[in-house]
Amino acid sequence: MEHTILRKVGQFQLMEDKSAGYSVYYTQNNILIEHTKGKGKSYEFLEDRKETLMLVEDSEFVSRAKQSAGNDLYILEVAESLWSELGNIPVNEDDELDEDFINCFNTFEKGTDKTEVWHWFESTFNLSVAKDLMYGKR
Questions:
Q1: Torsion 70-71-76-77 (CA) sign
Q2: What is the mean pLDDT of residues 39-46?
Q3: Cβ-count burial of 73 within 10 angstroms (0-12 exposed, 13-18 middle, 19+ buried)?
Q4: Predicted local distance difference test score (pLDDT) of residue 138
Q5: 5 — alpha (psi -120 to 50), left (phi > 0) or beta?
Q6: For residue range 98-129, what is the model confidence (pLDDT) as tens digits?
Q7: How far apart are the two ends of the chain, measured CA to CA in Å?
Q8: What is the DSSP string of the chain?
Q9: Cα dihedral 127→130→132→138 (10° resolution)
Q10: Which of 30, 47, 84, 92 has the most other CB atoms within 10 Å of its CB?
């Protein structure tokens, strides 16, 4: 997909794609770009939303970008996928990783306390490990 980045705030980007012969605007973040690479997922919305997102403050841009992109669902997919990978990493009797846990966002070396990894999941994906990953969906 050929696109032009119109605005970037943190990990969120407002992009324009003209490959269809007309402009399609969508927002995406680095987590989603990595996860959806090659899957052809994009988040389209109308021209008026693009204009609004060009003008709002950065914090509001991130909030609206999340809403426009429907990112919560896809971020949860990424988190669940990584959580599943983490499940394959053995933990020793001191609750430390017994192997390196390497993913596209971070590397946790052997010996890292598992709760440190859990906190990383919560802060990176804005979720609760207990509620969202261990015991069910939001």
A1: positive
A2: 53
A3: exposed
A4: 44
A5: beta
A6: 999 987 667 899 999 999 999 988 887 778 89
A7: 31
A8: ---EEEEEETTEEEEEE-TTSS-EEEEEEHHHHHHHTTTT----B-HHHHHHHHHS-HHHHHHHHHHHHTHHHHHHHHHHHHHHHHTTS-B-TTSBBSS-EE-SS-EE-TT-BHHHHHHHHHHHHTS-IIIIIIS---
A9: -100
A10: 30
Question: Where along the chain do its domains lie?
Answer: 4-69, 73-134
Amino acid sitting at position 110: K
| Distance in angstroms (rounded) separating the CA atoms of residues 9 and 59 | 8
Higher pLDDT, 43 or 7: 7
With 80 as the cut, is the pLDDT of residue 53 above it? no
pLDDT of residue 69: 58
Specify which residues 97 forms β-bridges with.
91
* 30 Cβ contact list (under 8 Å, min separation 6): 11
Residue 11 phi/psi, 5° resolution? -90, -5
Residue whose C-alpha is closest to residue 45's, from 75, 73, 74, 67: 67
